């Protein structure tokens, strides 16, 4: 069984982003970029499934500019067997990404797709659900636990939902999106980083996959959120209670 | 460049509203119900739908099976004066809110109703179902909308709420949105209104495609203790972070919550350390809250946490470290040991009426 995992290159989660003065977007020049944290978790899960003898190959996919290959190399260094880079310029919205993934499924024939539940830049939380919909595959979103039954071709997925946890049983092939608590991703070791350099990254263009890059969304502007006005440091619990009661009127 | 910016921000909104003003707006609200009534977050979605345009005809779609569905439909019919129709899909396929049958349902209801907009709340139900349905309809959905300008322009947070993005939907119908419930509070007047009772009709399921239905099956649900108010809609939230040090100490937070009639929240650090279950997590990847009063104890204030609570009306932070970033967003900060502050608060806070 083959597993397809997507890895997105995003601004590192610890970076405090800056909105461009012309409001066209967020400054990405000279900013530290990393693999989206949820994608790391997705890849880690795929690797664990392979290490448990339940999968034969883990293929990492990334879409976007030429630098996405760096993100793919990170994935290969973690343990992915090979990479696929779909080179595209301009804004890629989840609908397009899902269509590209669907086209890759026809080429690669994986039994399982694992993606992060959301990218921490656009915060969309859509791609996994959309590719599942396009393929007509079942989906297990926001997974915090995944159990595979290879013989029965089933995946049991525990999901993080409002108010608790929900367990679903999915027929394979299926799409799983990962929540933070699914696992703790590994670090790539230096020998593995060296080894990753010789692993294959296959390139595609959207045209080769017969997917048109277009969008039905247009960004009008990107602005900074309103700033909260400066607060005060109070000296004691008594002052705090007094302020909450008589100034803020919240208790 | 400055001219271009001015053009972008001022001319386009007027331009777009004039195109769409003449078109009829009709909205399908994909609603969730529990225990015989429609959920508050779904009523917020109705409230959001009102902002799409005057004369918007709003239909609410409920699905499930059994008597609790019928009760919920009756409740939906009178829960908001703007609802003009309640559609009910009664089938055991919808007993659990699985994405596969639900997306198929939204698809057939859209084919029949030709809605201009489809809205759901941006919670685990809406985020699971709506994008799948959007893929079936070949349109781009818009997640977690916090502001609506006319029928095609929307504001949503990106980068954990550190930037706000205004997007215009230029595609074909339907335009699909999930909305942030706390940004569309329902006025008490409309919540209690019984004056208008919307008609209830059954969805014809004869054309319901069975394609991917049955490929996923519900196994079980483990729910957390729900004695306290719901985190998403509580008026007061008290949150503990790593500074609480143990699950045992988190009991203090529960006592404090009881005294304030508050919901208890937690940071990712507190959840990962096993102090509390993960559905209490507030932040970019957890719940987004906007209570009247948010009190953070032993919370440093990481970007991802702030994303989940920055819209609270009054923020109080108690932390030993006077440099903690949480103090930059707090209205009232108290630098001190929470193990001394919380007992003192418990003692001195006025009794809840």
What does this structure look like?
The complex is a heterodimer of chains A (251) and B (353). Chain A is an alpha/beta fold. Chain A has one domain (2-223): Rossmann fold (3-Layer(aba) Sandwich), CATH 3.40.50. Helices cover 27% and strands 30% of the residues of chain A. Chain A has helices at residues 37-51, 68-78, 94-108, 127-135, 190-196, 237-246, and strands spanning 2-6, 9-11, 33-35, 57-64, 82-87, 112-116, 139-149, 154-161, 164-171, 174-178, 201-204, 217-223, 232-234. In chain A, the strands form 2 sheets. Chain A has a 9-stranded mixed β-sheet with strand order 9-8-7-10-6-1-4-5-11, sandwiched between helices. Chain A has a two-stranded antiparallel ribbon with strand order 2-3. In chain A, α2 crosses α5 and α3 (94-108) packs across α4. The N and C termini of chain A lie far apart (58 Å). The mean pLDDT of chain A is 96. The longest helix of chain B has 20 residues, at 2-21. In chain B, α7 (247-260) links the parallel β14 (236-240) and β15. In chain B, α4 (99-113) packs across α5 (124-137) and α7 (247-260) runs parallel beside α10 (338-348). Chain B has helices at 2-21, 40-50, 67-78, 99-113, 124-137, 188-192, 247-260, 268-272, 303-306, 338-348, and strands at 26-30, 33-34, 37-38, 57-64, 83-90, 117-121, 142-145, 147-149, 153-158, 163-169, 175-179, 200-202, 216-223, 236-240, 263-266, 293-297, 314-319, 332-335. In chain B, the strands form 4 sheets. Chain B has a 7-stranded parallel β-sheet, with helices on both faces. The model of chain B is unreliable at 1-22 (pLDDT under 50). Chain B is built from 10 helices and 18 strands. Chain B folds into 2 domains: 26-202, Rossmann fold (3-Layer(aba) Sandwich), CATH 3.40.50; 236-348, Rossmann fold, CATH 3.40.50. Chain B starts with a helix and ends in a 5-residue tail after the last helix. Chain B is an alpha/beta fold and 353 residues long. At the A-B interface, α3, α4, β7, β8 and β9 of A face α1, α4, α5, β7 and β9 of B. β9 of chain A pairs antiparallel with β13 of chain B. Chain B: Its cofactor is FAD. Chain B: Belongs to the ETF alpha-subunit/FixB family. Chain B: One of its GO terms (biological process) is fatty acid beta-oxidation using acyl-CoA dehydrogenase. Chain B: Residues 27-212 form the Electron transfer flavoprotein alpha/beta-subunit N-terminal domain. Chain B: It is found in: Mitochondrion matrix. Chain A: Heterodimer of an alpha and a beta subunit.
């Amino acid at each position: 069984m083959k597993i397809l995992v997507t890895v997105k290159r995003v601004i590192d989660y610890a970076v405090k982003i800056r909105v461009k003065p012309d409001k066209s977007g967020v400054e990405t020049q000279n900013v530290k970029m990393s693999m989206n944290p949820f994608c790391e978790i997705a890849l880690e899960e795929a690797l664990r499934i392979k290490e448990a003898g339940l999968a034969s190959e883990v293929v990492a996919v990334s879409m976007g500019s030429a630098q996405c290959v760096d993100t793919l190399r990170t994935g290969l260094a973690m343990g992915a067997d090979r990479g696929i880079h779909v080179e595209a310029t301009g804004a890629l919205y989840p609908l397009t990404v899902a269509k590209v993934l669907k086209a890759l499924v026809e080429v690669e024939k994986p039994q399982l797709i694992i993606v992060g539940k959301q990218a921490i830049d656009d915060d969309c939380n859509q791609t996994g659900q959309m590719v599942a919909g396009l393929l007509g595959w079942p989906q297990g979103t926001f997974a915090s636990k995944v159990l595979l039954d290879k013989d029965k071709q089933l995946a049991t997925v525990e999901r993080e939902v409002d108010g608790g946890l929900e367990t679903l049983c999915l027929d394979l092939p299926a799409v799983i999106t990962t929540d933070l608590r699914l696992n703790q991703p590994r670090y790539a070791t230096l020998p593995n980083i060296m080894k990753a350099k010789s692993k294959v990254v296959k390139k595609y263009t959207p045209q080769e996959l017969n997917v048109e890059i277009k969008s039905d969304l247009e960004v009008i502007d990107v602005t900074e959120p309103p700033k909260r006005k400066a607060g005060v440091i109070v000296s004691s619990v008594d002052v705090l209670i007094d302020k909450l009661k008589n100034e803020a009127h919240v208790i | 460049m400055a001219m271009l910016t001015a053009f972008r921000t001022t001319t386009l909104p007027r331009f777009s509203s004039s195109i769409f003003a003449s078109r009829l707006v009709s909205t399908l609200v994909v609603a969730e119900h529990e225990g015989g009534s429609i959920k508050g977050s779904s009523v917020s979605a109705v409230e959001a739908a009102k902002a799409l345009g005057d004369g918007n005809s709003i239909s609410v779609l409920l699905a499930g099976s059994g008597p609790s569905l019928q009760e919920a439909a009756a409740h939906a019919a009178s829960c908001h004066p703007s609802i003009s129709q309640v559609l009910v899909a009664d089938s055991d396929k919808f007993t659990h809110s699985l994405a596969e049958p639900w997306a198929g349902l939204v698809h057939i209801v859209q084919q029949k109703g030709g809605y201009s907009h489809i809205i759901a709340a941006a919670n685990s139900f809406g985020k699971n179902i709506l994008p799948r349905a959007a893929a079936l309809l070949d349109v781009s959905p818009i997640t977690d909308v916090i502001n609506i300008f006319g029928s095609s322009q929307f504001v949503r947070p990106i980068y954990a709420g550190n930037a706000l993005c205004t997007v215009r939907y230029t595609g074909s119908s339907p335009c699909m949105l999930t909305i942030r419930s706390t940004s569309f509070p329902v006025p008490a007047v409309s919540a209690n209104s019984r004056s208008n009772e919307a008609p209830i009709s059954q969805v014809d399921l004869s054309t319901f495609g069975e394609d991917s239905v049955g490929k996923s099956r519900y196994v079980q649900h483990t729910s957390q203790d729900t004695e306290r108010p719901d985190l998403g809609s509580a008026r007061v939230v008290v949150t503990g972070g790593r500074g609480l040090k143990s699950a045992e100490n988190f009991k203090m937070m529960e006592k404090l919550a009881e005294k304030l009639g508050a919901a208890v929240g937690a940071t990712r650090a507190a959840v990962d350390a096993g102090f509390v279950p993960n559905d209490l997590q507030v932040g970019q990847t957890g719940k987004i809250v906007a209570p009247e009063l948010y009190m953070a104890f032993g919370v440093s204030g990481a970007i991802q946490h702030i994303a989940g609570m920055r819209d609270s009306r009054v923020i109080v932070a108690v932390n030993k470290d006077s440099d903690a970033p949480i103090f930059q967003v707090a209205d009232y900060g108290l630098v001190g040991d929470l193990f001394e502050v919380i007992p003192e608060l418990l003692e001195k806070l006025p009794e809840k009426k």
